[in-house]
Amino acid sequence: MKRFRKIAIIDTVKITEVAKRAIQDYSNELVIYPESDAKDETETYKRIGRADAILGNWQSTINASILKHTPNLKYIGICGTSLANIDLEAVKKQNIVLKNVTDYGDEGVAEYIFAQLLNLFRGFGKYKWRDEVSELNSKTIGIVGLGATGQQVARVALGFKMKVLYYSKSRKIEWEGKGVQYSPIGNLFKKSDIVSLHVLKNTKIIGKDELEKIGNGKVITDTCLGNIYKDINAVRLWLGKENNFLIRDYQPEIKEKLGDLERFIYTDDVIAGLTAEARERLSTKVVDNIKAYLEKN
């Protein structure tokens, strides 16, 4: 079996013990898993050392200044989807193969969203959307970004007999055939009872103008990576109005800015897409990526 000389783990990775044992089989040297993320570039390239393969997470940073210290590096595996912190040109220039993992946490994200919506609409916990208990049935949900996660949300919403609108950079004819309606984003904001956001990391999509279109008595769900708000003060003002709610999974930066507001529904230490099953899917794909690379090289 082909192996790397050394696989270095540059940041914390949420993979299973079974996957860790499999990864060790692909490394001649002992694979060491750090207990915390690298604090700066120096620590990152020191962790890499003379490794010819590395694994990181969706927050891992790899740039030209790091790569100049890692002449042996041939393979970068990201245990997640986002490549926002990877200098793709620098990686390509050094002929390094870069692999990430997609479509592993979508089911968990959709379940999280609808668990929170059911709690809110039925008044099961601290929050209740309206004075009377409400159903999701017949409500309109507008999905911004109909990628893998947005599609999973649409699938569940249709099961609740909701009206489903979507906005995406490209039309999804297959989903329109299932009853999901395309809408320009401004119209989607105006027509939706619930706006569910599924855009790329740190895509600034919500500000004063968008919130004015969304209006009052509405719910926004945000499980995106990073901060997607153009104007956080506008979000604070919007949340101060009656029956407006924002649902957000673990994102300390957003909690710091909105956590004091009554209708900001936030779950500490709960990442929407991180479930036992998602870890299994992620772990399998991380190992499969390594195996596929070694079989071809």
Automatic annotation (TrEMBL):
One of its GO terms (molecular function) is NAD binding. The keyword Transmembrane helix does not apply. Pfam families: 2-Hacid_dh (PF00389), 2-Hacid_dh_C (PF02826). Belongs to the D-isomer specific 2-hydroxyacid dehydrogenase family. Keywords: NAD, Oxidoreductase. InterPro entries: D-iso_2-hydroxyacid_DH_PdxB, D-isomer_2_OHA_DH_cat_dom, D-isomer_DH_NAD-bd, NAD(P)-bd_dom_sf. It comes from Candidatus Roizmanbacteria bacterium RIFCSPLOWO2_01_FULL_35_13. This is D-isomer specific 2-hydroxyacid dehydrogenase NAD-binding domain-containing protein. Residues 9-295 form the D-isomer specific 2-hydroxyacid dehydrogenase catalytic domain. Residues 130-229 form the D-isomer specific 2-hydroxyacid dehydrogenase NAD-binding domain.
